[in-house]
Design goal:
about 170 residues; four-stranded mixed β-sheet; 6 helices; alpha/beta; single chain; globular
Length: about 170
């Protein structure tokens, strides 16, 4: 979406979340955007609300690992928090995902299993301990954003808007 907007002549600058604990935003997203000469500012995951409130973010674009029939979206942990912040700050929240992420056999996102990953992903950063030994850790890899926070779901087959139970079915060919 970002590349397409640039090709259409739109002025785009991106705030990229670092995406803990693996920091894909810092290591991958920023790198890809820089390769396309798209101005990008790296922020930590917990800074998004500050920039939304300040009016610096015009829309949010996230990916998806799985999308239920009602439009609930499973994605990297922290997506739900960003969606709530976007709603609170009247910032449109878009999901850009391939049609293959749709799972219309699942009525809602409550049916999507959430993977728990190893504690060391949180207690260590690049092999260095950042928490005391024996720290209790929860490390879900994904969260589910309820459809009520999603402005639209954008796929290669078109755009779905609420009610998603109807619009998502029309995208499956």
């Amino acid at each position: 979406m970002i590349r397409a907007a640039r090709e259409m002549g739109k002025q785009i600058d991106v705030f990229a979340d670092e995406t803990r604990p693996f920091m894909q935003g810092a290591r991958l997203t920023v790198w890809e955007l820089q390769q396309d000469l798209i101005p990008t500012t790296l922020i930590t995951d917990n800074m998004a609300g500050h920039f939304m409130k300040a009016g610096r973010i015009g829309c949010v674009v996230v990916g998806a690992d799985r999308i239920a029939a009602n439009g609930d979206v499973a994605n990297k942990i922290g997506t739900y928090s960003v969606a709530v912040l976007a709603k609170e700050n009247s910032v449109p929240f878009f999901v850009a995902a391939p049609i293959s992420t749709l799972d219309l056999t699942l009525a809602t996102g409550d049916r999507i299993p959430i993977e728990e990953r190893a504690a060391a992903e949180v207690t260590h950063v690049f092999g260095h301990a950042v928490a005391p030994e024996g720290t209790e850790v929860r490390n879900p890899a994904f969260d589910v954003t309820p459809a009520r926070y999603v402005t639209a779901i954008i796929t290669e087959n078109g755009i779905a808007r609420a009610p998603y139970e109807e619009s998502l079915k029309k995208l499956v060919r």
